[in-house]
Write a structure and sequence with these properties.
The chain is of the alpha+beta class and 254 residues long. Helix content is 31%, strand content 35%. It has helices at 6-13, 21-29, 63-71, 87-93, 128-138, 140-143, 148-156, 199-211, 227-236; strands at 34-41, 44-52, 56-61, 77-82, 94-107, 121-122, 160-166, 169-178, 183-190, 218-223, 239-251. An eleven-stranded mixed sheet has the order 1-2-3-4-11-5-10-9-8-7-6, sandwiched between helices. Helix 5 (128-138) crosses helix 7 and helix 8 crosses helix 9. The radius of gyration is 19 Å and the shape is globular.
Length: 254
């Protein structure tokens, strides 16, 4: 993205930050690893595509804009989040290795219903190894390669972690951080044998009490098929906001 359309870019995404969260966050805070392409006509943006880290792609806009932007995408492997109507154009270009429905949920001040039945503690670098172990076991597809060092680096960048411990052992964790626009819950994970005990609800509720501010709503991204997680978030007050097509894939051979 050139400097000249940047004010228009910010004007567009500021109208719906939950929908454009990664565009805002990555362009503001990780610009050296971020590329944004715009489909422009005069003073209106019809579509935009974010490419982060040379692999992660977010696509928004009209179908015609999405089709044009995808023609510019020259990656061999992608992890892409897009609108449902973009799916046919994505599948023309990339062969999926995994697909999901992805949902963003939203919580505004005054709508929260915290439910804390278990003691929740703040975590630090001494807990990083246990956090990584719980994450890898809870969701190998998304977190299977996370390391202790990844957790520590995230803490150093401002992610705050909370958890429930039983007999001194960590069994449920969650993290969040605040940006200029929203607070984001990034991770919630519970060890398998400690699920359905209310631990995740207590962790999420504690995070909400800690982070939800009058001027900043909270958001969380979750796979639409993860019904237990959605139930936890709805119990605390989150509402379903938007759904997306999510895919990991490799470029089709011509």
């Amino acid at each position: 993205m050139e400097p000249s359309p940047e004010p228009l870019f910010w004007k567009t995404i500021s109208q719906d930050i939950p929908h454009y969260y990664f565009f805002a966050f990555d362009w503001k805070h990780r610009r050296d690893q971020t590329k944004i392409l715009l489909a422009l006509d005069g003073d209106k943006i019809y579509g935009m595509m974010l490419i982060y880290g040379g692999e992660i792609v977010n696509l928004r806009g009209s179908t015609e804009a999405a089709k044009a932007l995808l023609e510019k995408l020259d990656l061999e492997k992608v992890e892409i989040q897009a609108l449902d109507e973009h799916k046919p154009y994505i599948l023309e270009k990339y062969e999926p290795t995994a697909t999901h429905r992805m949902m963003v949920m939203l919580l505004r001040k005054g709508e929260e219903r915290p439910c804390i039945k278990h003691p929740v503690v703040k975590l630090d670098v001494s807990d990083a190894k246990q956090i990584a172990t719980i994450m890898k076991a809870a969701d190998p597809e998304f977190w299977g390669e996370v390391t202790t060092q990844d957790i520590i680096e995230g803490m150093n960048r401002g992610a705050k972690w909370f958890g429930v411990k039983t007999d001194g052992k960590l069994v449920s964790v969650g993290n969040a951080w605040t940006t200029e626009w929203v607070s984001l819950i990034g991770i919630v994970a519970t060890s398998e044998k400690h699920r359905n005990m209310g631990y995740a609800t207590s962790v999420v509720s504690t995070i909400v009490k800690e982070f939800l501010a009058e001027q900043f709503p909270m958001i969380i991204f979750v796979r639409s098929e993860n019904v237990p997680a959605i139930h936890v978030y709805e119990k605390v007050g989150f509402k379903q906001y938007r759904e997306y097509f999510f895919m990991r894939g490799i470029r089709r051979k011509s």
